[in-house]
């Protein structure tokens, strides 16, 4: 008997059959041969020795048990990578007493991942021509998913040895199984959307949340439109909001991306309706035509002007053509062939006539986004021998606590009357150039700041230092900032500043140039 007090002890208990007893029992059994059950019950009882070992071993977490593996060969597919990871498990018979090799239930469950040993169900996953047969264990799956529980143990459960799942990619299904069996989340950029679909379908909420977090951190102008479409499909409002933030601020980049042509018609309409879209209307028009060309191909229609207009339908009138610059309209939309002759004439009259015709197109310009300015100096000054440039770099490092989009810098001008400056602005992260531009601006001799813009807003992630730099060429005597602040609260965004080793002209936290960061948030 084990004392009740032992219940509160951290211990390992082993039940060992004594060798001598086993030997004696074996001999007696062989002598009697085919004896009755009553006679066999008279055999000496088997003795067990109870050994209790105290242990102070800490409970392992998933991260301790399942360290991340090194990246696989980039030339292999995601499915091949998963097969490689489970090569030692899949379709193999573990060594005798393999259970004793793994101290925790998580490790023992992990052995069963993608393993035919004791598998009581198989899944044929993937579309026809690209299927993969994967083993499963009903109990483990039912513990990890309410859908699997209903499938195997519910009132309408069907006793099938093989289940076909044509709408889920094999790599995504394996990623979900890996989470259920191993308590490990292993996501990849090329399969995360498919994994999110699988997690939603089988109601595995924590994996779905991890997929959404992965998508949010990898969100950019290149994939924002596609992710917007998917986030609406998966009913993920937080991800949808993040997508809109990127699309609004970096609209021209998003509209020119290849992913924009892959969105569905409903998403296209929602983007064209967007009031805060920060883009020229000619860019919106050209993006819509690019989408229409790809849509013709999807519908197996000849790519023609007539079919482009056909697939656009009423979405064409969501493009605010009357708000284009006259040159953009005359050289672009008017000559595209998509507009009818009457529409072209009416829009020309809209530009020039006092009595404007009625148009089906939206004629109010988009509001776009209002840029915010973070001013880091409490005062500015000028002296007879400062500030001089001589082709040197003024630089400062900054970090934010929320994702923002840097549109440009506010710079000082001449302290000796009006002057024109040439400015090369640059934005870097860990030495990698994220954005740069060479432009000119006119200074009126006041102590005001003057905006200099990047070609496209640059996405800035939180809690990482970036380097803002400028090289100015013009009147050497300029205003400069004083009483610099290491931290500035600008609306809901907190900006921190620190000195940059790239600065070779005296700019630092306390004083110098680059007085303002201009951004969208």
Automatic annotation (TrEMBL):
* Pfam entry (one): PHR
Record-given protein name: BTB/POZ domain-containing protein 3
Query: Which SUPFAM superfamilies does the record associate with it?
Result: POZ domain
Naturally occurring in which organism (per UniProt): Chelonia mydas
The subcellular location is: Cytoplasm
GO cellular component term, pick one: cytosol
Q: Which GO terms describe its biological process?
A: cerebral cortex development; dendrite morphogenesis
PANTHER family in UniProt: BTB/POZ DOMAIN-CONTAINING (PTHR45774), BTB_POZ DOMAIN-CONTAINING PROTEIN 3 (PTHR45774:SF2)
Q: What region holds the BTB domain? A: 119-189
Sorted keywords for this record are: Cytoplasm
| Compositionally biased intervals (Low complexity) | 32-42
Q: What residue spans carry the region label Disordered?
A: 23-43
Coiled-coil blocks: none
Q: What InterPro entries does the entry give?
A: BACK (IPR011705), BTB/POZ_dom (IPR000210), PHR (IPR012983), PHR_sf (IPR038648), SKP1/BTB/POZ_sf (IPR011333)
């Amino acid at each position: 008997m084990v004392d009740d007090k032992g219940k509160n002890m951290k211990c390992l208990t082993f039940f060992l059959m004594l060798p001598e007893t086993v030997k004696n029992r074996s001999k007696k059994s062989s002598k009697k041969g085919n004896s009755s059950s009553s006679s066999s019950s008279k055999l000496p009882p088997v003795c067990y020795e109870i050994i209790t070992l105290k242990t102070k071993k800490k409970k392992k977490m998933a991260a301790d048990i399942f360290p991340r593996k090194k990246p696989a060969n980039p030339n292999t597919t995601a499915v091949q990578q998963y097969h490689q990871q489970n090569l030692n498990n899949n379709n193999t018979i573990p060594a005798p007493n393999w259970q004793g090799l793994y101290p925790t239930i998580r490790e023992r469950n992990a052995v069963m991942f993608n393993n035919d040993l004791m598998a009581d169900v198989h899944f044929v996953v993937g579309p026809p021509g690209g299927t993969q047969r994967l083993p499963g264990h009903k109990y483990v799956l039912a513990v990890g998913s309410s859908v699997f529980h209903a499938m195997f143990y519910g009132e309408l459960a069907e006793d099938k040895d093989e289940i076909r799942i044509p709408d889920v990619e094999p790599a995504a299904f394996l990623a979900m199984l890996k989470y259920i069996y191993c308590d490990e989340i292993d996501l990849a950029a090329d399969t995360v959307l498919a994994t999110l679909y699988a997690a939603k379908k089988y109601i595995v909420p924590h994996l779905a949340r991890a997929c959404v977090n992965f998508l949010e951190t990898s969100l950019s102008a290149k994939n924002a439109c596609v992710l917007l479409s998917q986030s609406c499909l998966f009913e993920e409002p937080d991800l949808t909001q993040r997508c809109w933030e990127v699309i609004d601020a970096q609209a021209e980049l998003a509209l020119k991306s290849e992913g924009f042509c892959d969105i569905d018609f409903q998403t296209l309409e929602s983007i064209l309706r967007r009031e805060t879209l920060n883009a020229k209307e000619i860019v919106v028009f050209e993006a819509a035509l690019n989408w229409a060309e790809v849509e013709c191909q999807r519908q197996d229609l000849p790519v023609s002007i007539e079919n482009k207009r056909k697939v656009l339908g009423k979405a064409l009138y969501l493009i605010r053509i009357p708000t284009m610059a006259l040159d953009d309209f005359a050289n672009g939309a008017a000559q595209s062939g998509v507009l009818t002759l009457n529409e072209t004439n009416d829009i020309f009259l809209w530009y020039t006539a006092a009595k404007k015709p009625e148009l089906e197109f939206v004629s109010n310009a988009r509001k776009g986004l209002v840029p915010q300015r973070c001013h880091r100096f409490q005062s500015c000054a000028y002296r007879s021998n400062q500030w001089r440039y001589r082709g040197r770099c003024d630089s400062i490092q900054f970090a934010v606590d929320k994702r923002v989009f840097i549109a440009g810098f506010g710079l000082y001008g001449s302290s000796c009357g009006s002057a024109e400056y040439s400015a090369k602005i640059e934005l870097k992260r860990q030495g990698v150039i994220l954005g740069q531009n060479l432009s000119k601006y006119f200074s009126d001799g006041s102590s005001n700041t003057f905006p200099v813009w990047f070609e496209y807003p640059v996405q800035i992630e939180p809690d990482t230092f970036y380097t803002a730099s400028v090289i100015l060429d013009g009147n050497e005597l300029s205003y400069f900032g004083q009483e610099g602040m290491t931290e500035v609260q600008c609306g809901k965004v907190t900006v921190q500043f620190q000195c940059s080793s790239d600065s070779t002209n005296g700019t630092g936290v306390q004083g110098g140039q680059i007085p303002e960061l201009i951004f969208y948030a």
